[in-house]
Specification:
By secondary structure, the chain is α/β, with parallel strands linked by helices. The protein contains 14 helices and 13 strands. The strands form 4 sheets. Strands 1-10-9-6-5-2-4 form a 7-stranded mixed β-sheet, with helices on both faces. Strands 3-12 form a two-stranded antiparallel ribbon. It has a two-stranded antiparallel sheet with strand order 7-8. Helix 6 (about 135-145) links the parallel strand 5 and strand 6. The radius of gyration is 21 Å and the shape is globular. The two termini are about 25 Å apart.
């Protein structure tokens, strides 16, 4: 049986349940109660006041930037591998984005590039923990401690990751989490802010109180998209239809990645879209509470397989792995490798029954809409082009993990690879 690239944390029952919930009338009081319950449960892991929820992670970011009360035109440093709209949110908040490269050996920040780009105008550093790999927060905090700069952690892909035994999301002034497709806690759309700064927290709550109620149609549309992907990645549809098509088209088009990707184009926005200025819904909160109850179990299964694959490849001496700042704290939300010949390896994996995918994040340094804002980030450009995400999710057996590792090792050891 072929192995799908991902395991969506939602089930058919979850999605059908939230669709029913969305079309069932609920009181505003009931929705508010359940939203607070979800925010409280999520933030409890960080020993923090209730999280603050927004319709999208980028809007959580925008309101957080406004709530930090930075001076106009202060600089916000952000990784080159990110969602393009985060640059828009920085600009629309009246601030200046500064794009920093990633390290040569993986997804950690390039600390030399970071040091070069810090100026007296730098007010905030956004630390993005990609694919479950923690950033070296000791180095980040040592840089910030010498200056009056805030840290914001983006833990969207690293909900349970740690660094030196400490949960990511607890190092900065605040942390943000995406709740969108494939995330460990997926509420169709949405974003959360967690902070222990009470004054900052209260500003964010006031911002959410001014937002109109979340419309149902976009959430119903996102629920249907999740349902389609669940069916497409499950037996028998994946085995009999989707995977044969992927194998047929693998050199020309990855239609599954195109369908999955939310941000298909990046433009320079002049204003916040009206459909972004809405709240978080009670139906999303109730779905989030359900997923939080199974979060630990789901994470353990994926981490077990990710660590097994990582250890096999590491012990083989295969040089295609990203370096982890703390492998024991890495949760392998995705499993990236950097093969010598990405296209050839994709073909090899697909011919052996393993689906794989490209990077869906933007390389901000090469986004045409941001010309004049960005500077070259050669490492990010290399990884954006050459990363292959291979499956290592919780549905896979140890035998399947071993077979995948064997294929990668044999391929990388070929002289013509």
């Amino acid at each position: 049986m072929p192995i799908a690239r991902a395991n969506i944390p939602l089930t058919n029952s979850d999605v059908l349940g939230v669709i029913t919930d969305l079309i069932t009338p609920r009181s505003l009081e009931k929705d508010a109660e359940d939203i607070l319950a979800f925010e409280t449960a999520f933030a409890a892991r960080y020993d923090a006041p209730p999280a603050v929820s927004f319709c999208k992670a980028r809007m959580a970011f925008y309101h957080l930037l406004r709530s930090f009360e930075l001076a106009e035109d202060q600089q916000v440093i952000i990784s080159s591998l990110h969602i393009g709209d985060f640059v828009n949110m920085i600009l629309l908040a009246g601030l200046k984005p500064v794009i920093v490269d990633v390290a040569k050996n993986g997804y950690n920040v390039d600390f030399e590039d970071l040091e070069r780009k810090i100026t007296e105008q730098t007010g905030l550093i956004v630390v993005t923990h990609l694919a479950g790999y923690p950033t070296d927060m000791t180095r980040v905090t040592s840089i910030v401690d010498r200056r009056n700069i805030l840290i914001l952690e983006d833990c969207s892909q690293s909900v349970t990751s740690t660094f030196n035994g400490r949960l990511l999301g607890t190092y900065g002034e605040a942390s943000i989490f995406s709740l969108s497709l494939l995330k460990s806690v997926c509420t169709l759309n949405g974003g959360l802010v967690v902070t222990k700064n009470r004054e900052l927290h209260d500003r964010l709550v006031r911002a959410t109180n001014e937002l109109p109620k979340a419309p149902k149609i976009p959430l119903l549309s996102e629920a249907i998209k999740n349902l389609i992907l669940i069916i497409a990645l499950s037996f028998p549809v994946f085995d009999l239809i989707v995977f044969p098509l992927l194998r047929l088209k693998n050199r020309r088009s990855d239609f599954l990645a195109k369908y999955q990707k939310t941000n298909k184009t990046v433009t320079l926005r002049k204003e916040i879209p009206k459909n972004f200025m809405t709240g978080f819904s009670g139906a999303q909160a109730r779905l989030g509470l359900k997923l939080l109850s199974s979060l630990s179990q789901n994470e353990k299964r994926r981490i077990r397989n990710g660590r097994a694959l990582y250890d096999i490849l590491k012990q083989s001496g295969t040089a295609c792995l990203p370096v982890s700042a703390d492998v024991d704290g890495t949760t392998f939300w995705l499993f990236p490798i950097f093969p010598k010949n990405p296209n050839a390896l994709r073909s090899k994996l697909i011919s052996n029954g393993f689906d794989c995918s490209p990077m869906l994040l933007s390389n901000l340094s090469q986004v045409e809409a941001f010309n004049g804002i960005s500077t070259p980030c050669p490492n990010a450009t290399h990884f954006h082009t050459n990363t292959v995400f291979v499956p290592a999710h919780g549905r896979m057996s140890p035998k399947e993990i071993s077979k995948l590792a064997e294929i990668i090792i044999q391929f990388e050891n070929r002289e013509d690879a």
